[in-house]
Amino acid sequence: MKLRCTVVFLVLMAGVSISWSAAYCQEPTPEVPFVPTPQEVVVEMLKMAGVTPNDLVYDLGCGDGRIVITAAKVFGARGVGVDNDPGLVRRSNENARQAGVTDRVKFLEQDLFKTDILEASVVTLYLLPELNLLLRPKLLQDLKPGSRIVAHEFDMGDWKPDCIGKVPKVKLYYHPAIPYEKDTYFYYWVVPANVEGVWRWTLSTASGNQDYTLHIAQKFQEIDGSVQAEGQAKRIEDAQLEGDRLSFNLSEDGGTGNVLMRFQGRIEGAAIVGRVEIEGGPSAGNYAWAAKR
């Protein structure tokens, strides 16, 4: 189901660390001080990600641990916070103890680029823009399709977010004693499956069997393509990729009028398994659909 991007926000204090050193960048960069994320922003970020008790939330650059602590205390999820600052990791553990969620969260002092995130269903970030871009390949490679990412303040370059949240006139503490008021944003992505390439299938309908070849070009969750059948190529319409869910439409001339084919399926490695609904023509109906790359 598509996320509806109607979001209302308030203002509080929460925190994530962006104190990652030059060791994590290809070029030397100065240390960035710990800047807390407002607490109600944390709550809305987790709401946007649809966090439930079934989720495992990783916060890369966890600061004082409030994102994973909130995920556990408010949403019932499990959480892992990662930071390279031992003092912040100790503070996170103490905050978790005070919040009574030590059975659901843990904190790791380590390099976030070397952190095992394979089991994460949600990843949250408050890092510098260049670190987001450096981290992007790891997120796309390691996270399962359908995993969700929410980043405070900074996006992922040309990977367009699926949704953007805005918090008006929030107080950010770049200096511990001096609040800085500004509109702040956070960005939401669903990790897409890899669907680029050539897919083939034979569709059996009331009118017989027909072979199809689908060519897909992909840029993150944005896809385009064309289908070849009976020596003709037609561009797919209304193509959508959300996690491991693919859908698109194909319009054909059925001889007795226009035919609309609505394909929906789940990507399972080198296969797509789903259904196709055909409207119009002698093959009208709902059929199983399975394609291979």
Summary, kept brief:
This protein has 293 residues and is an alpha+beta fold. The chain has helices at 39-48, 66-75, 86-99, 129-142, and strands spanning 56-60, 78-83, 105-109, 122-125, 148-152, 163-175, 178-190, 197-205, 208-219, 222-229, 232-235, 237-242, 245-253, 258-268, 271-279, 285-292.
How many DSSP E strands? Answer: 16
What do we call the CATH topology of the largest domain? Answer: Rossmann fold
CATH superfamily of the largest domain: Vaccinia Virus protein VP39
Main sheet properties: 7 strands, mixed
What's the number of structural domains?
Answer: 2
H and E order: HEHEHEEHEEEEEEEEEEEE
User: Can you give the helix content as a percent range?
Assistant: 10-25%
CATH class bucket of the largest domain: Alpha Beta
Shape call: elongated
State which percent range the strand residues make up. 35-45%
**Residue-averaged pLDDT, rounded?**
88
Number of helices: 4
- Secondary-structure-based class equals alpha+beta
Which CATH architecture of the largest domain would you pick? 3-Layer(aba) Sandwich
- Termini separation: 25 Å
Strand line-up across the major sheet: 3-2-1-4-5-7-6
Q: Which stretches are poorly predicted, pLDDT < 50 over at least 5 residues?
A: 1-32
Radius of gyration: 23 Å
Key terms for this structure?
single chain, 293 residues, alpha+beta, Rossmann fold, Lipocalin, 2 domains, seven-stranded mixed beta sheet, five-stranded antiparallel beta sheet, 4 helices, 16% helix, elongated
What does this structure look like?
By secondary structure, this protein is α+β, with helices and mostly antiparallel strands. It has 2 domains: 22-190, Vaccinia Virus protein VP39 (Rossmann fold), CATH 3.40.50.150; 197-292, Lipocalin, CATH 2.40.128. The protein is built from 4 helices and 16 strands. α1 crosses α2 (66-75). The protein is elongated, with a radius of gyration of 23 Å. The relative contact order is 0.12.
